[in-house]
Amino acid sequence: MNPAAREAATRDPAHRDPALRDANPPHQLYLPDFCRPRAVLAIVLICELTALVLALARNEAVLGFWPDLGRTSMFLLWIGLFGAGMLCALRGYLNRLSLPKGSAIVLGLTATLVMLISTVAWQFGNRAGLLGGSDLVPQDHWTFLLRNVVIALVVTALALRYFYVTHEWRHNVELQAKARVHALQARIRPHFLFNSMNTIAALTRSNPARAEEAVQDLADLFRANLSEKRNQIPLSDEIDVARTYQRMEQLRLGERLRIEWKIDSLPRNALVPGLTLQPLLENAIYHGVEPRPEGGVVTVVGEFNKGMITIVVRNPLPAANVTMREGNRLALANIKERMDLMYDDRATVKSGRFDDEYIVTLRFPFQPIDGARGA
Amino acid sequence: MTLTVLIVDDEPPARDRLRSMLLEAQGFEIAGEAENGRRALELCDSLQPDIVLLDVRMPGIDGLEVARHLATLPEPPAVIFITAFDEYALQAFESEAIAYLLKPFRAEKLHAALAKAGRLTRPQLQQVASASRESTRRSHIGVRGRDGLKLIPVDEVLCFVADQKYTTVRHQGGEDLIDDSLKTLEEELGASFVRIHRNALVNTRYLERIARDATGQHFVHLRGLTAPLEVSRRMAGDLKDRFRI
Question: Are A46 and A73 in contact (CB under 8 A)?
Fold first, then answer.
């Protein structure tokens, strides 16, 4: 790495790039998406843990531990699931609020919800005669309400704090990933840039028309790389970038480079992080085609099945006595990180050598660009 | 006097550019063009160019290794390295190359480098060559015979065996004599080779088994070699440690 790039990579990304800092102001309420199963599962777990704590603490004599736990769980799950539904519906509005205001509103809503459900439960228990004589729901209505609301507020406040801290942590990971993308670009570009310039210099003499095309391609590639909107782009754009890149390398490597595209089945409007396919192609050429005197064939195969997109890039490996070039892991780890940020744990990036080939497999859910959630 | 120049680059446009620039230069003549390291060495052998314009990053045998093999010639050509962007290689150039050019280079830079190469005397060239002989790890062992340069991939070498004067390299295609000492080969080839005796260095990828006879003497059996090789008492311990036996 040259000194400037090293310096850029070590510096705090937020200081380097003001756009990164302002992209997601930190002191804002953050709620996970309660319309999604993962977050609902979190709610269920919180309810069950609270029920467990309550049942253990109460040491119920009449009912015994298990029935008490079951009853408390049912009561809390009603509250939790209604709460999840409520937050799912209000998420868009709540996430725009400041941290104190948003937290206050969520706590207020929770208190109201708990009062409502507690009242219903109390009335139901009263009607069914469960209250008479025993102290299953021992206090009068108001004491019961008050206790429930205070417990709910404490638990909700803890949960909010947890979500906030987790989000902050993810936000930091995201910043680091962005910083690494920048570092990666700074790392790979020079070699490619100077070789391309040399190719263009050669073509200017022998074939000015192709030289002109090459300059335009190079400009397109750099524009795509420098763009600030590279986080989420349609797959068709990423394929275009990869093809432009292929044209540049084809000029340089000639017949030694062949790329077979089998991607007709892929939905072109799928949402992908920018710079996913192109770096894979760059790796395949750099590690698999350039070091082989006879060149090689890179295949890109795309499949679309049951809402999942699979893209497989394969390249031959150089003869065993040629030392592997470095820099492969970095690009792959980087793509994996950005895929994770966009699709959570639903995306996978796998890679490895099989016989005499190196194969990278990307798998991610199809999200059309129009219905995309603003992450 | 016209000096002959060999162009070595794996990229066709890069060769085109060099060719057209050389045609404009005075006092130089293109001897030939090679698209990879192996071809470059063959052409150097047959054409005996005065100057080699050598791309560093090439498939198979790269530019640095070509230079290293060229340096063993009795009359090495003047090597001018060409590269797009290689920070590590640049350090090597400082000591070993007569000049280096960074792609895309200007015609004046090329002319200056050629002129510098043309001015060098034979002792100067040999001095530069001797620096380059020591540096890179080779992927091929060069053998100079009556019919020119033969390149043996290091991976196909079973073992090196030394006697008083020469080193014999036994490989899948037979055996040949080379000038390198076992000590320098061991230092250069490092991890994939192991010294089993004062006079033998074997390739671990062909190691089949280690046997011991009644007197306690260890022997190494190599795949593709019928006669076992003797392991010295001193090296037997190291060998056992290395393969955990």
Answer: no
What is the Cα–Cα distance from A218 to A195, expressed in whole angstroms? 11
Contacts of A250 in chain B (CB under 8 A): none
8 Å CB contact between A262 and A225? no
Does pLDDT of A20 surpass 50? Answer: no
Q: How far apart are CA A309 and CA A306, in angstroms?
A: 8
Give the tens place of pLDDT for each residue, B207-225.
Answer: 888 888 888 888 999 988 8
CA distance from start to end of chain B: 65
Q: Which residue of B has its CA nearest to A249?
A: B11
Please judge whether B13 and A290 are an interchain contact, meaning their C-beta atoms are less than 8 angstroms apart.
Answer: no
Residue A315: partners with Cβ closer than 8 Å, 6 or more residues away: A283, A284, A285, A287, A288, A289, A296, A298, A357, A358
ipTM of the complex: 0.71
Residue with tokens 């509005």: A93
- Whether the full predicted model's pTM is greater than 0.80, yes or no, is no
Distance from CA of B122 to the nearest CA of A (A): 32
Q: Strand A271-272 to strand A233-234: parallel, antiparallel, or no bridges (unpaired)?
A: antiparallel
CA distances from A312 to A44, A184, A249, A300, A359 (A): 38, 22, 20, 6, 7
> Does B155 sit within 8 Å of A321, measured CB to CB?
yes
Angstrom distance (rounded) from CA A171 to CA A176: 9
Measured in angstroms, the CA of B81 and the nearest CA of chain A are apart by 15
In this complex, the residue of B60, B84, B85 whose CB is nearest that of residue A293 is B60
How many pairs of residues across A and B have Cβ atoms under 8 Å apart? 74
Q: H-helix or E-strand containing A167?
A: helix A141-206
A292 and B155 within 8 Å at the Cβ level: the answer is no
Return d(Cα B76, Cα B143) in angstroms, integer.
16
- Asked if the Cβ–Cβ distance from B11 to A291 is below 8 Å, we say no
Picking from B17, B59, B155, the nearest residue to A290 by CB comes out as B59
pLDDT, one tens digit per residue, over A202-237 is 999 889 999 999 999 999 988 887 776 667 889 999
B114 SS3 class? helix
**Which residues in B lie closer than 8 A to residue A201 (C-beta atoms)?**
17, 104
The segments of chain B whose pLDDT lies below 50 read none
Q: Which two tokens stand for residue A58?
A: 């109460």
- pLDDT of A264 reads 94
CA distance B85 to chain A (A): 5
Put simply, the answer to whether B57 touches A290 (Cβ < 8 Å) is yes
Question: The tokens 């022997």 sit on which residue?
Answer: B219
| Beta carbons of B12 and A291 less than 8 Å apart | no
Sheet holding B174-178, edge to edge: B174-178, B167-171, B157-162, B200-203, B193-197
Q: Do A202 and B13 touch (CB under 8 A)?
A: yes
